[in-house]
Model the fold of this input.
Amino acid sequence: MQFDKPATTNPIDQLKVVGKPIHRIDGELKTTGRAMYAYEWHDPKLRYAYGYPVGSAIAKGQVTSIESAAAKKAPGVLGVVTALDVGDLQKGKLNTAKLFGGSEIQHYHQAIAVVVAETFEQARSAAALIRVDYAPEKGAFDLKAEMANAETPDPSTEPDSSAGNFQAAFAAAPVTLEAEYATPDQSHAMMEPHASIAAWDGDEVTVWTSSQMIDWWRSDFAITLGMDKEKVHLMSPFIGGGFGGKLFLRVDAVLAAFAAKAVGRPVKVTLPRPLIPNNTTHRPATIQRIRIGAERDGKITAIAHESWSGDLPGGGPETAVMQTRLLYAGENRMTAMKLATLDLPEGNAMRAPGEAPGLMALEIAVDEMAEKLGMDPIEFRIKNDTQVDPENPERPFSHRDLIGCLKLGAAKFGWDKRTRPATRREGNWMIGVGVAAAFRNNLVMPSGARVRLDQEGIVTVETDMTDIGTGSYTIIAQTAAEMMGVGVDKVAVQLGDSRFPVSAGSGGQFGANSATSGVYAACVKLRDAVASKLGFNSADVVFENGEVRSGNRAVALAEAAGHEGLVGEDMIEWGDLTKTHQQSTFGGHFVEVGVDIATGETRIRRMLAVCAAGRILNPITARSQVIGAMTMGAGGALLEELAVDTRRGFFVNHDLAGYEVPVHADIPHQEVVFMDETDPYSSPMKAKGVGELGLCGVSAAIANAIYNATGVRVRHYPITLDKLIGDLPDVA
Amino acid sequence: MRAFTYERASTVEAAATAAAQNPDAKFIAGGTNLLDLMKLEIEKPSHLIDVNGISLGSIEKTQDGGLRIGALVRNTDLAADETVRRDYALLSRALVAGASGQLRNKATTAGNLLQRTRCPYFYDPNQPCNKRQPGSGCSAIGGVTRQLGVVGVSDACIATHPSDMAVAMRALDAMVETVKPDGAKRAIPIADFHRLPGDTPHIETALERGEFITGVTLPAPVGGKQIYRKVRDRASYAFALVSVAAVIQPDGSGNVAVGGVAHKPWRVEAAETELPKGARAMASALLADARPTEQNKFKIRLTERTIGAVLSEARG
Ligand SMILES: Cc1cc2nc3c(=O)[nH]c(=O)nc-3n(C[C@H](O)[C@H](O)[C@H](O)COP(=O)(O)OP(=O)(O)OC[C@H]3O[C@@H](n4cnc5c(N)ncnc54)[C@H](O)[C@@H]3O)c2cc1C
Ligand code: SF4
Done:
């Protein structure tokens, strides 16, 4: 199905099932431990062996030798496969750093060997016996130091944009702001570590893994192993979080495949937690410069956003300036990205790449500018709202209700009670409130599905879509149920299997809208098949209550399916509506914090998000996405930083004791409100993404609240107490 | 983790004998620190002596009106003990500020005293670390040091001792009671129990090889306002950046020990005479010899301000 015209009325608009607060249909499996995650996959007929990976001890250079004789002799050991044994491998298309093979070390903890044994413990113990000699080389590890050497990245990343004459307008503006902001490297820190099991059958391999994108992995796996993609079967039915860390093929799958081949048995490999931050990808640090010029009435006349980030050769920039191209009006504008070569682990997508760190900076700058203008920061944002792409004013937004979000949020939150900075005290707590706009583009991806109807009247959906904890199973069931006129109890959903039609996968908050649209398309096909089998005229067919009706004829779906059953398969593809119209999601984040006047500890007191993200397919799963994202934003504002050792070239705090993410005690009252809206330009579902929107802007709202509480402006995340304590008032 | 042999000891004597027979052995109590370190091969005992079966799990009054805490009393039970909560509230507060509920259910009094540093380089076997591998160098110095020590540090090591409980015990003048493999008993003042790193950061306590902790005694209750203030980045489940354990008497005198700043709970009795002059005077005497790094010099100011907050809370 080609989606190239705005959606009109369709069966989804009935909203009998879609839009309802239905609990996860896979919830029971998860809460009872029966949802099998990659490492837990168990076939009693198979004798699994265990692989334990070895990571490089240096950040850059060459492996000159790997001594594995002692490991091979250790109890229970079945085999050792080293990077030197397998030699150079072709790298997956979507990987920047090579995962395995050959002597070159590109980053710390790059995988250089896997030890396979009868038990996990034996493999781990033997892995410690591997001795490696290196020829280390000097590397660049310090973004600040490399800023001067940073270059404009590949044009495909659209590094620069401009409209009007920024320089002249900024120079002429009566009120201006110029400031530098910094965001640190961050780790996805998902609950489930990367894990895979590989089992060979002749020259074919089945891999159970933890992947957000089945088809991307399958392709890159085949390239890396040098085999035919058709001979790779990938399974990833349950995923314990990914946040972008499982978008691209990871080394656990590669090691498991080599290990399984070497020992002639299925092999399980998981990345030990301390290996994950340096072995896998991370959100790269940024340094950002923002300049804003405005008239005294608050109208922005000039806005510029530049960002510096680093990556391994062949990598890309963190696209932190993207939202600034679209969020606020202003005739004269420019954005630019610069990329430095760094020999740290690969920088790549983490939840809301670009917008998350970009808004961490931009939305502080907007708060600072409002203060300079003597304006309320919400009024300032409203004053500079735009209904068109400000760089291409002939391109309207498909639907944009940032103002509605901010106004509703302000009313609900009690924004009018905000006081001047550093004026509100409760005991030892300095109290402040902050606001930020949320903004994230609505991406769409082609997505396929197959829907079967059987003689019991059961509708089964098959697609390689993944559920990374987001609720894909549930919203897909709701979509099929709505389309086929049955309840969700009559729908079975099977996901994450490369034998199923290729879907959007989970990432970039495109999953829900794209994948349900694919299911919609397949259901349209199935409806046609039902109608034509019954000789109904599909135009006036109604699917309702497990029946299909036309005029005064009604047939039960089960009966219509008959012995053979019926199948519909299709893929949603996207016309140029995303080009003619800017499709984005919007929101307002409101936060109240307390800052301890003596110690500078910041504790969040309440959070509110108001989101405008098209039709909300399921308010429970959507809310879970947003509160999870707000929690991640709290971590980003206050805690999370991969600390770089700029001499040795690695992230030092590479476990969950050192890389602190929020715990329950950090997260107080959270409230989420969804605007009641639809966006017919976005898809037949009229929905948009919401899973990343919830993160965009949260950290800046917290930063602004800290400023309101203390009068201290911190522009370098995370805002830990050491950055405040020098400026807090004297006590005692 | 290396393969190891394992035995259960049911008496102190049996534990001490087993330790004497196998110089490479380690006692295991709750295992919450030891097992993590064994998985990373930072600890490599060839033999484990499980001491959980020894009856050292009680809390009893001593003859001089103090309290004896068995080595195997779990942190949860110690924090919840009625006498502790009434007479040594500082200890109870320090305990519940540490780790998580699950960990405190397993963690023991002796194990807590002997937990090892959280220096991130200590935890990474690829990195030189004098504490893990004597003579290999200290990779923290000149590197990421935000969490590390500011006072009593050496050129060989700037790590901190991470315990909350021990800081409270230091302020309460606890004694650590032990039995050596030859059966000799001794009581070590907590002030002398943990050592500064000096040139031998791998030697962390006054314990001799195989010496077994039987318990900790506290002197008779001293009253006063007992406050434990733990400062950290996240609200729970994090080690202290700085913690202050204070017993403040109505006349303004008191005992103050500080955690998160040194290789041991940091207390300077002489500095306590400055207490009546206020936090700044007290802190500057307490940290007079501090040698912070660029990344952790905030701990100096933080210590002073936290002591200030504690003193004003004590004044009520
Ligand atoms: C995630 C995490 C967070 C934590 N957070 C905190 C925190 O915030 N604050 C805090 O204070 N602590 C914290 N801890 C540390 C925790 O308090 C310690 O791990 C615990 O107290 C150790 O006690 P255990 O009984 O488990 O010791 P074990 O791990 O069993 O033993 C530790 C050491 O003591 C030795 N030992 C044990 N008993 C004896 C004995 N009777 N005589 C001689 N030697 C003995 C062992 O041989 C070993 O060397 C945390 C730990 C973890 C894992
Ligand atoms: S500070 Fe101490 S524990 Fe940390 S690396 Fe240096 S020697 Fe090792």
